[in-house]
Amino acid sequence: MINPGFILFPLYLYPLLPTYWTPLFNAANTYPDLSFLVVVNIDNGPGASACPNSDYTPAIHNLSLYPNIVALGYVHTASSYNCGASGTDICPATRPQADLRAEIDTYQKWSLATTAGGCGSPTIRVNGIFFDEAPTVAANLTYMENITTYARNSLTNGNTIVYNPGSPVDQGYYQFADYINVFENTAAIYHGTNIPPLANGHANQSTLLIHTDPSDLQTLEQDVDTIIDTDSYGFAGVMITNRTVTENPWSGFPSYWDSLCKDVDAAN
Length: 268
Prior knowledge:
Layout: E1 6-10, H1 22-30, E2 36-40, H2 56-63, E3 69-76, E4 80-83, E5 89-91, H3 97-109, E6 128-132, H4 141-154, E7 160-164, E8 179-186, H5 187-191, E9 206-211, H6 217-228, E10 237-240, H7 257-267
Parallel strand pairs: 1-2, 1-10, 2-3, 3-6, 6-7, 7-8, 8-9, 9-10
Antiparallel strand pairs: 4-5
Helix pairs in contact: 3-4, 6-7
């Protein structure tokens, strides 16, 4: 079960050593009522191999040991990046659905026996899919409905579905996804944005990813409380980091990770 007021963490940190993901596991143990939705992204998806490599296998196994961690397999919907007035924007919902289905099938097979084409361990698994580069306009509703239905029908270890367009979407998408991330940008832009309208009336299904956040711990606590508390914005989930685009904000833990977890847990 996913408790509202969760942390959504695109954990794009390669687990070269088992200790690299230890802060996540420590937090999951310390805050058993706080849910962590963790995105597993081996190589812009599950990678070319049928199974995770020897670095990822123990890390993914460890995710399964915590009932409050939901592992989401990364799948992106764009095949080209030359859209918009600049000719450099993401073109969502342009990948062939067959490519997305193949990646979902790979994630599903991880937990199967080797005789069934799997990796031989029921703990090597994901509990849903994180669709990155997701579309926002109504014209692509059918594309997302079809691939979401396929994922829900295929996955047997949980079928939580998260879309990440990083901006507000047509309301129709909320009938397909469990959660939609409607903001992925810097703290400076967050603080200059009227946030509640981003959710289009669906705050309890919406999340925010905020990076390049230089906040002191008091401001961090205030921001978390504003975003999560149902008496305020009442968003479903959040991730805030002081890491920047230059270093990839999601390829490591923020320096105030422990405080972030404590604040999100307290805001529930």
